[in-house]
């Protein structure tokens, strides 16, 4: 039996705020307390606010350039530019995770410099304050190819098994050599979004009943979820890949057709 | 507060089995009963078994061809062929959802012919038997670009709000014109996988506490999650798109270079 709830009262978060204290106070106000095996899932937005990762709206393009490693795909639809990029954390998503919703007027929020480190620090503080072995996930909202809408995923994690390693199993397609690895961290982040929502000002959720997932703070973080571009069948958008191929093919075609042995062939 | 649990005792499912009866018996054995607002999340595998969507292993390639609308991307790595395809349901995933894990020896399982209809039939049966307004999701396990591991998603749904419509909100990137639409059905399927798991023979999970998501059986199903290929920035794999571009560019290049006005230019 899994229980998931979102303690209320964590509304405004400002630079320098102690997130561990905010979470523990919210639990105390509701007469609950963290137990070993609990997983605290925190919307990355309030971590960015607590860490002061804010910029003036006017510096948004500069921040976007700083956060972006490479543009994966872009499309301009009637002035509305969508840019899917890989950010410095290896996360592929829209606008490098720069957030202008529910931020102070005229400002944008950048993702934590190191979400896994932020998660570790929060988990360590919660464990020290309570003596309970709790896990922490930082969640963000991402769109995805092929399916409409968005789901929350884990961009930071500490003290939890990010993957359910099922070595030896066959995968959903029955290929015996491939290993099925459910991404528990992403499934936990998605579950937490069901109680947090986007409009209810409930930026923290607690999952109880997944003790088997919780472990030491030295477990791999959410960085381990990001797949290297060279291993990805969709490392570049369809239009971008077609354009690169067209340019290379065109060069090759003109070179061959106008090459010295052209007459000989024709 | 959300509660999620997986009733035990639903082990072997065979062609013709009454899934509604199996779910209700499992609940009864544990002294629980379905309540209005509950969402029953069923692993699509047992729906396929109940519907007799089985084929001899030897017909696997033929079944794959039947289920596949188009190949999105393919890669052969040391004899292990990965094929990402769009199936007849508009779902993009590996091997068209054909499943050879935990199936009868020498057989493979195909996805339900119409997962939304299967979900509607199960929801209608559960509502008729209990008098309670319950929702139903059929879940399957899918990999995704850019992130390792898999998560469970909804391939069928009935009696639930598939999306949380947040019109007017700005999205995670702060673009005011874009609408954030959390895919509740996928987040519920992911949450359910946390209690079902892949190895524990618990193919059914019940989510309690999401009453706001449950509604009439005429609500749109999971088919509404599939994005049309022409609207997708990743409708084709990077290598496939590059190859198409290269071929088109090569043809254009040779045509121009060896065209009649070639001498005039050079």
TrEMBL record, chains A, B:
Q: Which SUPFAM superfamilies match?
A: CofE-like
Please give the superkingdom of this protein's source: Bacteria
Q: Where is the Coenzyme F420:L-glutamate ligase-like domain?
A: 10-209
Instruction: Locate the region Disordered.
Output: 247-266
> Could you tell me which Pfam families the record lists for this protein?
F420_ligase (PF01996)
Bias (Acidic residues) occurs at 249-266
Q: What is this protein called?
A: Coenzyme F420-0:L-glutamate ligase/coenzyme F420-1:gamma-L-glutamate ligase
Q: What is the taxonomic lineage of the source species? A: Bacteria, Bacillati, Actinomycetota, Actinomycetes, Micrococcales
